[in-house]
Specification:
The protein has 11 helices and 8 strands. It is of the alpha/beta class and 263 residues long. The protein has one domain (6-261): TIM Barrel (Alpha-Beta Barrel). The protein has an 8-stranded parallel barrel, surrounded by 7 helices. Strand 1 (19-23), helix 2 and strand 2 (40-43) form a beta-alpha-beta unit. It starts with 5 loop residues before the first helix and ends in an 11-residue tail after the last helix. The structure holds 3-methyl-2-oxobutanoic acid and sodium ion (NA). 3-methyl-2-oxobutanoic acid (KIV) binds next to strand 6. Homodecamer; pentamer of dimers.
Amino acid sequence: KKPVTVHTLQAMRDKGEKISMLTCYDASFSALMDRSGVDTVLIGDSLGMVCQGHQSTLPVTIGDIAYHTASVARGNQTMLIVADMPFGTYATPVAAFDNAVKLMQAGAHMVKLEGGAWLADTIRLLTERGIPVCAHLGLTPQSVHQMGGYKVQGKTLEGAELLHADAKAVQAAGASLLVLEAIPATLGAEVTAQLHIPTIGIGAGVDCSGQVLVMHDMLGVFPGHKAKFVKNFMDGAASVEDAVRAYVAAVRDQSFPAAEHCF
Ligand code: KIV
Ligand code: NA
């Protein structure tokens, strides 16, 4: 398996090959995911909920993400490593750059930020300085208190138009990947068709360029709320590695997500 780069992901999108992404937080799971065919891993700030037991992602620090990114990087050989920028670490472009440097030095190949048009200057500054950016639109968990809960986004005409505009803005600013979370499947398909960069869906329908799930959700070990878009791949699997391989296969053949996982 050759190392996965931003070019690999773009080529997969251009050929219509689906990209498989999972969250990952340590070296052992990183090695397991790598040998199981996962294309890219995300050190998500979801670790605040699934590893640290918090009620939201807001308490996660840049040090937390750097620590887990370094652990994942040690277990990895070929996957593209994306690290989340935590809440409050990219309020200004310069702050974003200083914090992104910490994650890149810990072993990330790309950083992810939640937001749209307002992040254009930040995305431009990071990408011009050699830091690839993944944007994240739709349900953005760091804004849970602004959104008034974890709710499906882009359901109104106005909401859908805003999402289209934000997607175009982050692409124009230089983002090379876009996560779409908890939006109607039709909107996920439209935004993906409108862009030339790959989209990675989580509750955004099967027509995104790829899919992501939180590892603890797809292994059925997270004790909290189970979102509609979650599927437990341990059902019928003989081992954790089997479950991860089943996830990769289901993303590739588009049997996941099914209608029951979509909005
Ligand atoms: O933190 C995370 O795990 C994420 C994914 C759900 C996209 O941002
Ligand atoms: Na996240």
